[in-house]
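Re: the request from the purification team.
They wanted to know what the chain is likely to look like in 3D before they choose a buffer screen. I agreed to run a prediction and write the result into the notebook, where they can find it.
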Amino acid sequence: MLALVAAVAAHSVAPPSGALWAPPPRRRARPAPADDALAARAAAADRPSHEEPALGHTGERLPAPLSWGRLLSAPAALTQRELSLPAHAARRARLYAELSGWARTGLAAVQGGRAALWLTVVPSDGSSRGTIPGSAMRVAVRLWLGAPPRPDPPRPRCACGAAVDPAGRHFLTACSAQVSRRTAVHHHIVALVAAALRRAPQWREVAVEADLDGTAGALRPDLRATAAATAAVTWGDVSVAWPWAAAVAARVRAEPLRVVAGAARETHKRAVYVPALPASAPPHAFTPLVWEALGRIGPATDAWLKLALAGPRMASVRASLLLDVSVALWRSLTWAVAGGYAACSTPEPAAAPTADRSPTAADDLAWRGGDYRVPHFLRGATGRHADSGPIACRIGE
């Protein structure tokens, strides 16, 4: 036990960035103490400070172990998971300290905020809703862990004319050749939210892309819904925020447990739409609907969906909506990699043929809708391009 306590104490030693990964303390509802417990606490409060037992290190020896009585009389019942949180935070901090700026941003952007919903999808060859096949799952997992999307680097030049870095990051940021793919993902998320609201009895007259009253068509939010009980009108606009954008990347790295990019986009959307809301009865309100590209949900978006789809009957609808959006985002990332690698070319006009020209390459299957099984809304978004190397993942990786 002493060795175990010493090991836990060693794990708690972290780089200066360790505080970034410390989760906020959980507030627990404690029962009202009995009269005898209150009397015992009052007697303990009168004890002189020099008589209080000291815990922790004792000189050069191992840390003093906590007695069973002390453990069982803790202010709140702690679980094994909560007791191990400091060690896990320290390990993440040590890993975080060794990463590049890009990798730090990616690691921070998959922490909390429901970013891990897509991991509940088991790789499958079936075509049912919420499945990611093995070839796409390998790409997604590599991105999730901060590795390049494929073990083989892409060719140096993208179809949009920009140079491509060896890790293929260009495809995941501002590649102009993938605008149609990003637009398709946006429209798909709008359709998912609208379908969920139409299933909720507390909403009626759910419309998509209705002109905001009084703006002469200049502002067209993605959604409009009317509350069945009060006739109040709620406008919503969907967006996907990128954590690697220069305006927010530094803050994402500095606050890895907060949905920084999503919150920033929510603030921007409020500044655009709220001043344009009509001042009439029944009242009009606006809510941003923002997801980050790696799956995290904006805080205001998450809170509004809990209220808009509240109740035990709508719990499954809300869970299905969140899972569908998460899977769509990560399928979109894998499709971005497939399309980007396939669209790349070499600067030399006469490149020697390589083995990746095989018709059985993963990209060839992707364009034909074979093993990849990308969702219908992404098919044909980037057109048919030359094949690239197959997606390979060795066990050792």
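For the purification team: Residues 39 and 45 are 10 Å apart (CA to CA).
Please add any questions underneath this entry.
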